[in-house]
Specification:
By secondary structure, the chain is α+β, with helices and mostly antiparallel strands. It has 3 helices and 18 strands. The chain is elongated.
Length: 369
């Protein structure tokens, strides 16, 4: 007889996930994946915003450093007014203008230490700041001309001495002298220095002020312009880009009271834009400029999905399409910052960098100004 083997039904029972359980697990996994992707996307956006803001911080700091460094040098190399009040260079009226390279296409030189060209708030243009100073190590010292020789003759003119004068002899350098006789002045280019007292000037030296006994000549050396402007969101120095993602620059003159006596003449009492009478100030007004206040606006170049920058109105009521230049509650109205010419300007983040820079080389002249 054949015996049938009996199997325990409990050992044959299958165990595992049902279809419903698998579907629930898949849904949970998909939800977890979506959450992870959302967290990753948000983190990546925050990282890009943070790194972009750090870049804006760096660019703004570097831009302001460049400008501040040169503005602090404004006027260096001008003859020291305290050495001779009668022939003070900052009292030259009219202020001399000189075509140093005989090229009408290039800007002329003059002795105005700092000039702001207002860009105008209507079209959102940035201001332009031009600084002038000399690269010579020694500041100009006015010395007396002791002969009436023609300055363009082979022998040149004779001065008490030619301290600070040199024949640079380099094409890119501009070797400038200032000749003054009272408030009458002219600029000239030095082409030769011979011995201790002979100075030769270029044949293109402008006429109009006689070179006579008693006139002063001061060698300013390599006197040049340093022009800061903003083009295509780049800060440029003399036409060459130096810092990117700088979208605006605004500046104001800090001016003193013209009628107060003594040291009070060098205290800034108001801040003015380079408009109206200050677009082309007279010599007297020019000498009232004791400081400049500058703000640069740096941009994080990450285009956000939503608007992140709103219009800003200062306490004085200046409306800005962008950040405010500074808090003007206790000072004159701040300049207008208008970034609306930038496509989707509100979807970028901006940071302002501002400072007040005293024109120290001008303040040194307080005894005669």
């Amino acid at each position: 007889m054949i015996m049938l083997k009996r199997y325990n039904t409990a050992t044959l029972r299958q165990s595992g996930f049902s279809l419903v359980e698998l579907m629930v697990g898949l849904v949970i996994g998909l939800i977890a994946s979506l959450v992870i992707m959302q967290v990753f996307s948000a983190f990546e956006g925050q990282k890009r915003s943070t790194s972009g803001t750090a870049d804006a911080q760096t660019n703004g700091s570097i831009a302001l450093h460049h400008i501040q460094r040169d503005v602090q040098m404004a006027g260096y190399g001008l003859p020291m007014p305290s050495a001779d009040e009668e022939n003070a260079s900052l009292k030259c009226d009219p202020s001399p203008v000189f075509d140093h390279d005989d090229d009408p296409a290039t800007p002329n030189l003059d002795i105005f230490p700092l000039v702001i060209e207002d860009g105008g708030s209507a079209d959102g243009e940035s201001d332009v700041v031009t600084v002038r100073f000399s690269l010579t190590a020694m500041g100009a010292v006015p010395v007396e001309i002791v002969s009436e020789a023609n300055a363009t003759s082979a022998g040149g003119l004779t001065a008490e001495n030619n301290i600070g004068c040199q024949n640079i002899g380099k094409v890119d350098d501009i070797n400038i002298a200032l000749i003054s006789q009272g408030t009458l002045c002219r600029m000239a280019r030095i082409v030769g220095v011979d011995g201790d007292d002979k100075i030769s000037l270029a044949a293109s030296t402008p006429t109009g002020v006689p070179i006579a006994n008693g006139a002063k000549i001061a060698c300013m050396g390599n006197w040049q312009d340093y022009r800061y402007d903003i083009v295509d969101n780049q800060l440029r120095l003399n036409g060459s880009p130096i810092v990117s993602e700088i979208v605006s620059m605004q500046a104001q003159y800090g001016v003193s009271d013209p009628i107060v006596p003594g040291d009070a003449k060098n205290q800034v009492v108001s801040w003015v834009n380079a408009t109206g009478a200050w677009a082309a100030p007279t010599v007297a007004d020019r000498n009232r400029i004791k400081a400049v206040r500058i703000v640069v606006v740096a941009r994080n170049n990450l285009l956000e999905k939503d608007d992140v920058t709103n219009q800003c109105t200062t306490p004085k009521g200046v409306e800005n399409n962008g950040p405010c230049a500074w808090d003007d509650a206790d000072v004159d109205a701040a300049p207008t910052i208008d970034l609306s010419a930038i496509d989707n300007w509100q979807r970028y983040r901006y940071k302002t960098f501002g400072t007040i820079i005293p024109l120290r080389n001008i303040i040194w002249s307080r005894d005669v100004l």
